[in-house]
């Protein structure tokens, strides 16, 4: 039914669950709640129930994607909530496009201050996406039921079996921090197997068969006279309201041709010499995506620390250092690494945090941004551009939903461990013009936990226009995921965490969950542990006598403050490189293995301006008010692997005095805009501040089952030499973090 004909709003309630009982005080735990599983557990599988669920998922998603663009519950409109085509959905107020509401009271409650419905760089980032995933899951489930009843016309026991499979199915997630095992990419960080195949097997009642894989891409369901998909920017008459725009970049730079595409791509869109583009019909260049994802995670593969008798040294699965993403997840859950809701949930930076924050530059949203970039591709000239790399069109790629389901999983894990830190971050006041924390900036207020999460209704009503701020989900409303009808496999408690009545012992449960996280996501600490066991390494000489005695390690991190809108709303990446010749910046960029991390600025829709009138002016508000963002790159593992590489002459120890001198001469960075093109000068990013810190990591404590908890990190100190006299680098005379202010710093200690 077309949106204009709809009598009622769409109530997002999740898939119904019957006969479950909550058995806990605070942490959500309701035995029997259906589980969201990793996509590789859903496919491939020999289990009969799982095969039914896989079949229904593929066919339900296929049916969903074929719906016309003017249907409210179409894939196109649901994906479009995230950005383009910037239209209202389900009777909600239009996505905001102007920062200046006149009068101010006309601003809809819950409106994103940064433009569009989707929340980025606000502390509602993870909770806004929770009902979004629920909507997607619910519509696929509804299509499953139509397939069983209307398409297959099943009755009797067959109908019961397939209906039970549909009711127990939940949206799968893609755990991109875990290595894949399928042929050709064994032990690599890669796209899931289910997302690289052009055709996939299904197992309907009529017999096994194969279907085109709906997880590969999304093509426009609107066709031309020949039956070919139309470009997303040229919808047929009567449906032009849903045209997608190109995403304009700065003047002189080629726009991102989303309007010309008729299908989504991963590393598939290229510009040509004549000013046009190729790959517009949709290309799944999964090989480049896999290579890029693995290169980003396995930043250095020079040294294998595992001993010959270690099972991880199986020649089929050559052992490697922990991936960047795995180590980041481990750190994210390390005690006190992110000790407030604000530091965990969002990339948003505020000036008042400068003299307190060290590890808190690593956030869920920051990790999420980097995965968007490496999954989609951000280069029109050499490697290819993809939809996942750009906010307004990212949700059209089916892998977006697997990625964000994992983000929701990580959110649930953090909530389970930090239930009482829910929305505990107080909004800092706006600094005045003379505030010593630097350049004048206005702090745009974040939503509260009770602000509506537009445009997601939780009730069905036939009068949305009379009370547009009523009946919407809020962050508080979606706090308990079990009440939304799902849980995650990693949240299933071990028997040791249950009492005799099956109720959850929350303290034991949290420790066991931390231990499970530590074993699942290999950390810097585990890498160090393997090195200490290696007889070939002279520990005191390599690590230092104090670290050798106490089994601690020097931990090095790069913290970054950056401006999402430095390039007028175009996304860009800050690449960090380590290596090259002494004091020769350009030589560092010659060897791909020297790329050791990045901060991806997932900017969003282009702000309304002279470049593109009618764009996202709230994004312009964020830009104009200098609301900045933060990110973090861990340096420790790249430093170790370079120091252990016998062919590498510049660094032979990770003791502080050697490392700092090495970073001074060999750590460099560069700014690269989305779409490719030449490196941009640091002067185009005047609010960027890059700092290096050295701290200590150590293991502290075990779970009740005697398993290690994630290591802890503290005692960080700023190191000025690696960034002094480098563009955008922190200097020793900085007015907030300079040497004369060291006594004012309140960095966390052990």
Overview of this protein structure:
α2 packs across α4. The protein has a four-stranded antiparallel β-sheet with strand order 14-11-16-17. A three-stranded antiparallel β-sheet has the order 13-12-15. It has 19 helices and 17 strands. Helices cover 26% and strands 11% of the residues. It has helices at residues 39-42, 48-65, 75-80, 125-151, 156-168, 286-297, 324-332, 341-345, 364-376, 391-394, 399-417, 506-520, 524-532, 539-543, 545-550, 585-588, 617-624, 636-644, 656-666, and strands at residues 35-36, 199-202, 209-212, 270-271, 277-278, 378-379, 384-385, 452-457, 472-474, 487-488, 553-562, 572-578, 595-601, 629-634, 667-673, 689-698, 712-719. It starts with 34 loop residues before the first strand and ends in a 31-residue tail after the last strand. 53% of the residues are buried. By secondary structure, it is α+β, with helices and mostly antiparallel strands.
Q: What's the total number of strands?
A: 17
* Number of distinct helices: 19
Give the spatial strand order of the biggest sheet.
14-11-16-17
| Main sheet summary | 4 strands, antiparallel
What is the straight-line distance between the termini? Answer: 60 Å
Query: Please, what is the average pLDDT?
Result: 87
- Basic shape: globular
């Amino acid at each position: 039914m077309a949106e204009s004909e709809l009598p009622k709003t769409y109530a997002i309630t999740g898939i119904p669950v019957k006969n479950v009982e909550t058995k806990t005080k605070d942490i959500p735990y309701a035995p029997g709640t259906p589980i969201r599983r990793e996509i590789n557990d859903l496919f491939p599988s020999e289990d009969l129930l799982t095969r039914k669920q896989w079949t229904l998922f593929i066919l339900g998603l296929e049916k969903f994607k074929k719906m016309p663009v003017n249907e409210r519950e179409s894939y196109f409109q649901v994906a479009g909530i995230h950005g383009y085509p910037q239209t209202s959905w389900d009777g909600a107020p239009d996505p905001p496009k102007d920062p200046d509401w006149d009068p101010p009271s006309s601003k809809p409650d819950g409106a994103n201050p940064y433009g569009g419905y989707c929340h980025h760089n606000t502390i509602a980032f993870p909770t806004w996406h929770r009902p979004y995933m629920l909507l997607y899951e619910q519509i696929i489930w509804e299509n499953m039921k139509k397939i069983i009843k209307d398409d297959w016309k099943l009755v009797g026991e067959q109908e019961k079996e397939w209906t039970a499979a549909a009711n127990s199915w939940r949206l799968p997630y893609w755990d991109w921090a875990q290595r894949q095992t399928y042929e050709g990419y064994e032990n690599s960080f890669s796209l899931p197997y289910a997302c690289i195949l052009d055709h996939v097997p299904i197992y309907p009642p009529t017999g096994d068969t194969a279907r085109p894989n709906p997880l590969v891409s999304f093509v426009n369901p609107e066709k031309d006279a020949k039956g070919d998909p139309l470009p997303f920017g040229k919808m047929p008459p009567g449906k032009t309201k849903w045209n997608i725009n190109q995403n304009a970049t700065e003047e002189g730079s080629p726009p991102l041709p989303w309007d010309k595409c008729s299908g989504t791509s991963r590393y598939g869109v290229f510009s040509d010499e004549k000013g046009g583009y190729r790959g517009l019909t949709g290309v799944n260049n999964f090989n480049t995506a896999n290579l890029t994802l693995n290169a980003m995670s396995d930043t250095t593969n020079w040294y294998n620390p595992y001993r010959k008798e270690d099972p991880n040294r199986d020649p089929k699965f050559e052992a490697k250092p922990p991936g960047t993403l795995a180590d980041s997840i481990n750190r994210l859950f390390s005690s006190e690494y992110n000790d407030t809701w604000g530091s965990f949930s969002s990339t948003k930076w505020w000036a008042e945090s400068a003299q307190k924050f060290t590890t808190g530059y690593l956030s869920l949203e920051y990790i999420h941004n980097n995965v968007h970039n490496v999954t989609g591709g951000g280069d029109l000239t050499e490697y290819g551009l993809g939809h996942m790399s750009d906010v307004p069109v990212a949700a059209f790629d089916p892998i977006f939903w697997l990625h964000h389901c994992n983000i929701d999983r990580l959110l649930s894990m953090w909530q389970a461990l930090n239930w009482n830190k829910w929305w505990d971050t107080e909004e800092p006041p706006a600094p005045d013009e003379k505030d010593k924390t630097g350049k004048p900036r206005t702090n745009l207020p974040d939503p509260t936990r009770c602000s509506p999460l537009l445009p997601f209704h939780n009730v069905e009503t036939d009068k949305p226009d009379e009370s547009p701020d009523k009946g919407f989900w809020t962050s508080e409303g979606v706090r308990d995921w079990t009440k939304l009808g799902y849980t995650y496999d990693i949240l299933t408690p071990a028997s040791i965490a249950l009492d005799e009545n099956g109720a959850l012992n929350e303290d034991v449960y949290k420790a066991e969950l931390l231990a499970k996280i530590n074993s699942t996501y290999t950390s810097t600490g585990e890498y160090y542990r393997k090195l200490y066991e290696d007889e070939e390494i002279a520990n005191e000489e390599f690590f230092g006598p104090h670290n050798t005695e106490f089994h601690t390690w020097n931990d090095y991190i790069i913290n970054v403050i950056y401006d999402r809108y430095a390039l007028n709303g175009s996304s860009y990446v800050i690449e960090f490189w380590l290596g090259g010749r002494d004091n020769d910046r350009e030589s560092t960029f010659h060897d791909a293995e020297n790329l050791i991390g990045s901060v991806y600025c997932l900017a969003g829709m282009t702000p309304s301006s002279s470049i593109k009138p009618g764009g996202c002016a709230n994004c312009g508000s964020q830009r104009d008010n200098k609301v900045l963002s933060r990110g973090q790159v861990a340096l420790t593992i790249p430093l170790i692997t370079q120091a252990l590489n016998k062919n590498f002459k510049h660094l032979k120890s990770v003791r502080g005095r050697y490392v700092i001198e090495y970073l001074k001469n060999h750590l460099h960075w560069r700014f690269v805009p989305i779409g490719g093109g030449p490196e941009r000068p640091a002067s185009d990013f005047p609010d960027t501040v890059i700092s290096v810190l050295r701290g200590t990591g150590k293991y502290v404590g075990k779970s009740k089952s005697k398993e290690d908890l994630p290591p802890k990190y503290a005692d960080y100190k700023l190191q000025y030499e690696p960034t002094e006299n480098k563009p955008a680098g922190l200097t020793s005379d900085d007015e907030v973090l300079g040497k004369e202010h060291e006594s004012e710093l309140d960095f966390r200690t052990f």
